Structure formats: structure tokens, C-alpha cells
Amino acid sequence: MSTAPHFNIDVPAFWQDPYPALARMRKEAPIAFVPQLGSTLLCSRDDIFISEKQIDVFSSHQPEGLMNKLMGHNMMRKDGDAHMNERKAIFPAISPKTVRSHWTAQFEAHATRILDELKPDGVVDFVQAFALPFSAECLKSITGLTNMRFQDMNAWSQGMIDGIANYVGDPAIEARCHAATSGIDAAIDDMVPRLRKTPDLSLLGVMLQTDMPMESVRANIKLAISGGQNEPRDAIAGTVWALLTHPDQLALATSGTIPWLQVFEEYARWISPIGMSPRRIAKPWTIRDVAFETNERVFLMFGSANRDEKHFDKPDAFDVRRDASKSIAFGAGPHFCAGAWASRAMVADVALPAIFKRLKNLRLIEHQPARIGGWAFRGLLDLPVTWDA
């Protein structure tokens, strides 16, 4: 165990809103051991920005970690050459060039079709009506698992992210995670013969053209689904909510004064959809006066880093006019999110402009406020809205 001071949290309250506790930690103990989570948390942006690059100390390789046990050994849980080899293998599927030339048109088609089917029939939960199916349909295309229903893509993604954040060991959550990974394996098995015969630019299609072992192919598809569904889903719904509660900033975006990409980057700073990434201490190490022991678990708290008062003025405020370039919502080291370009295209290039162009007078329901939750993964649970026909 590290020599970090202990900091106790109320777990349900932390799930509801982690930011007050994280702000206290940044002020009182920016490196703190939280008994309720069984981990030492790094909460300052500078500590995380430096430490994430030190893979010889803060290792992603976690043989006993929940992700390895539940989803298989994917590239996110590998370091050095092992990580880079698999990252290079999938790059043709998600490179900026491929996103621009291949995926964006498909994203636009998915958005148009879903928006065409939407009707302002009373109160509409925008998470379920648009953010969820749009994210899932885009992810079906990118992964190559077009044989899935979008509902399964979302449910299986949620099952896995709940499973890998199940640090309290709830057996029901673990069982749902196993059901999700079994469903994904069956979908992969169904698509492999087709994609071997007719390769495409999907993740599965690209990986099948390499010498990557099949267990790694499966693990990396599950990785893509675990983060590739909830992050765009939550970012789309959350950014819509943020703009509707800040109409002056919405006007800046719809007028073109502020680019949609800047709006998205500020939301991802303010409410980081992926708020934490775990690491294993690979060798004895000391940061300032805190000593770490080999094999202990640490959490890099991206959600805290992105509200660090040393780098962001009034960090608890959503403000699309700010410079959010120091945000590390997508990571800061060699494990920088490989799907970042696809996510930006889905949210900033396609979803947000289409939503506010197509849905006239989109507005919140005054007596039904949106609900939000989570700390390792954070997003809206619902978003009741309506608009003019």
C-alpha cells in the first residue's frame, strides 16, 4: 500500500457527483488512498500528465485486473511494443484519413435516418431516442459487427463497463458482464467468415488481415465496444443538455461563432465521459512524499484532472469560450484513445450540428430534470426533451 494519506468517500454520493470529493482531494491530498475503492487516486492534472507517460512505473499491464479477467487481454492493458503492435494493426480502420474518407459519410447516413424517424410526441428521452442508437449504429459499422442490433450493442457495452468498474465485487454485475462478452463472441464468430472472404475497413476486417491471435482480436473488439458506445452516447446527450441549459453558449455554436469541435472538447473536459483509468505500479516509486509499492493499484482520475484549478479558471463551469486544450479527456500518454478521431467526427462533425439544425426549438422539460451519474464512466441517465414539429 502507498504511503498516501487516506481519504474516505461515500460511494453512492461519489457516484452521484464525484466532483466535490475530487476537489477536496486536489486541495488536501492530491494523491490519496481511498479505502472504499481499494486504490490510490492521482487527482492533479500535472501528476497524471507526467505519470501516464511513465509506463515502466504506471503500467497498463494488469494480469489480475477486472478488464483482463472479464474481457480478455486487449491492447489497453499492454505496454511498450506489445501495445504499439496492436495499435498499429488497427490504425488503418480508425486513422484520421479513414474517418474522413470512409466513416463520416456513414455516420451522416445513420444520423439522418434516425432523425427522420424522430417525432416530438410529447416528452422524448433523447438518450434513448437518438444518442444511444446513433452511437451504436456507428459502432456497428466501425467494429464490423453489423449483424448486431443496436440495442444489443448498447446493452453489451454497458454490461462490460459496469463489470470492469465493479470494484465492490457485485456478483450480479459480473454475471451481466459475462453475458455481454458471450454475446459479442457469438457475433464475432458469425462475421469472421464473411470478413475473411470480403475484407473491409472495419476493426474486425482489418485485424483479420494481420497475424494477430484470435483471442487478441476478440479482446480488442470488446475494448472498442466497451468505450466506443458509452463515450459518444454520453457525450452527445451531455453536450445537448449542457447547451440547452446554457442558451447563450448554444447561440454561439449555432451561429458558427464557436466551432462544434470546441463545444465537444469543452464538454469532455467538464464532464469527462471516461473519468478514470487504472494502472499497476510496476516498481517501487515515489512522487513528492508519497511512496508506492510494486503491484499496488492506482487510479488516474481524468475527471479530476480536467477540473484542476491550476489549469482551468472556474473549472466547475461549462464554458465553450474557454481554451480546453489542456484537457486530457482522451488520455495523455501512449494509451491516448485510439478512437478519438472517430469520436470527434461522430459528435462534433455529425451529431451536434444535425441535431440543432433538424430539431426546431429543441428544449428541456422544466418539471423533468435530466439525471446524471457515474465516476469511472459518467453520463446522463436520461434527457427529457421536446421540440416543434
From TrEMBL:
<dbReference type="InterPro" id="IPR002397">
    <property type="entry name" value="Cyt_P450_B"/>
</dbReference>
<dbReference type="Pfam" id="PF00067">
    <property type="entry name" value="p450"/>
</dbReference>
<dbReference type="InterPro" id="IPR036396">
    <property type="entry name" value="Cyt_P450_sf"/>
</dbReference>
<dbReference type="InterPro" id="IPR017972">
    <property type="entry name" value="Cyt_P450_CS"/>
</dbReference>
<keyword id="KW-0503">Monooxygenase</keyword>
<keyword id="KW-0560">Oxidoreductase</keyword>
<protein>
    <submittedName>
        <fullName>Cytochrome P450</fullName>
    </submittedName>
</protein>
<comment type="similarity">
    <text>Belongs to the cytochrome P450 family.</text>
</comment>
<keyword id="KW-0408">Iron</keyword>
<dbReference type="InterPro" id="IPR001128">
    <property type="entry name" value="Cyt_P450"/>
</dbReference>
<keyword id="KW-0349">Heme</keyword>
<keyword id="KW-0479">Metal-binding</keyword>
